[in-house]
Design brief:
By secondary structure, this protein is mostly beta strands. It is 0% helix and 57% strand. The protein is globular and about 65 Å long.
Length: 394
């Protein structure tokens, strides 16, 4: 068995490098690596405007009252892969996480196999294609289980085509991918407890009851020539009556599991290689639309990264058709109606701290503005915050 130290690209939009230990065995290559990410956060008020997660805590609570917060996690990754001369390959990835709450969680745990530049099958816990890239997302991000607790009553929902993307705590996913030159087709299927999408299994003031698991199908068609990347996707739950709620006014159980989302995203970078896009100018634009039972949501985003400076804007419009009249918590969004959310975020990367090419600092900030219609009181509200992130790769 041979042991060597290697350096590779860390991630799509980062200028950082990832040092790893690599072993060559008769069964293929094993790679051990790590990622430290700790944040110091400050927010303007106790409650957020939206259910968008702005903390790396795994036990996220949209109504958390902390104005000051230190959070983060350490990731340890182990990847294995074997390739044959005929371009066939198989491999796995496992990434345990240790956070500041003392809990040990899991990022990815997947097995994959296929044929290079042709097809691949992947099964386990992982994230499928990102249909709403945020560039240098220091403060506007989803952390951890992107398929869990995305929606919380009382908060605006910034829909980003993530409901069927993966990493659920209650189920797994199976993905098939096929490449045709610069075109790539993927279809991801995720099976899970659909009520975990909603914080406390509550939606529009009603308590949801699970009847069976949901099955999300998420086909994506993408084109990437190095300079331009374009993708279109749909995510749809194909299981009816997977979870329901009881309407006391109508005196019957109603199906709430009908959800279909549509997305379109476009990216351009000046370097002709997305792995090197941090060295030039990167621009992302995305659209997402959710057609759900008793709710319609639209989100549009535009962001760019240049010379370690990131700037983005996200617009969200929610249209809630019904809300439980007996809902007791009247803070935030507690009635049916329409409302809009505007969010501006900025970030700055300080690379190579103390001349270490694997140690970076990120400065991030955001400002959000919520407009309610007259049925919801007609007033508006604002939130803003700042973050200092320590990023260390090994």
């Amino acid at each position: 068995m041979k042991l060597k130290i290697m350096v590779g690209v860390c991630c799509l939009y980062s200028a950082s490098t990832l040092a790893a230990i690599e072993w060559q065995t008769e069964q293929g290559t094993l790679k051990l690596y790590g990622d430290v990410e700790f944040n110091i956060d400050a927010a303007s008020k106790k409650h957020q405007l939206t259910s968008l997660k702005t903390t790396a805590k795994k036990d996220f609570d949209a109504k958390d009252g902390d104005r000051w917060d230190i959070n983060g996690r350490i990731l340890i990754g182990l990847d294995g892969k074997r390739e044959l001369a005929n371009n066939a390959y198989a491999g796995f990835s496992v990434q345990p996480l240790a956070d500041l709450s003392g809990k040990v969680n899991l990022d990815d745990a997947s097995f994959f196999f296929g044929h290079k530049q042709d097809w691949q099958i992947k099964v386990g816990r992982f994230e499928a294609y990102d249909m709403f890239p945020l560039g240098q997302d220091t403060f506007i991000e989803y952390s951890g289980n992107t398929a869990n607790d995305l929606y919380s009553d009382g908060f605006g929902y910034i829909y980003m085509m993530k409901e069927g993307r993966g990493r659920s705590s209650t189920g797994g996913a199976l993905e098939l991918a096929k490449q045709f030159g610069d075109f790539n087709f993927q279809i991801n299927s995720m099976v899970k407890d659909g009520t975990t999408l909603f914080n406390d299994s509550t939606y529009h003031g009603y308590k949801l009851r699970k009847e069976k698991n949901v099955v999300y199908l998420r086909p994506v068609i993408a084109y990437n020539n190095g300079t331009i990347s374009v993708a279109a996707a749909v995510e749809h739950n194909v299981v009816s009556n997977a979870y329901r709620y009881y309407d006391e006014v109508k005196d019957k159980w109603l199906d709430q599991s009908k959800r279909t989302g549509y997305g379109l995203t476009f990216s351009w970078n000046s370097e002709g290689d997305f792995n090197q896009s941090a060295q030039g100018l990167l621009i992302n634009s995305s659209l997402a639309y959710l057609d759900a039972e008793q709710e319609k949501d639209f989100t549009a985003g535009l962001n760019g990264v240049w010379n370690n400076i990131g700037l983005g804007y996200i617009f969200a419009a929610n249209d809630i058709k019904t809300f439980n009249p007996n809902y007791k918590d009247k803070s935030g969004i507690s009635t049916k109606g329409k409302y809009k959310i505007h969010t501006i975020n900025a970030s700055y990367l300080i690379p190579n701290v103390m001349e270490m090419d694997n140690f970076n600092l990120y400065l991030g900030t955001y400002w959000s503005h919520l407009d309610r219609d007259k049925k919801q009181g007609g007033d508006s509200d604002n939130r803003y915050g700042a973050r200092l992130r320590f990023k260390y790769l090994f």
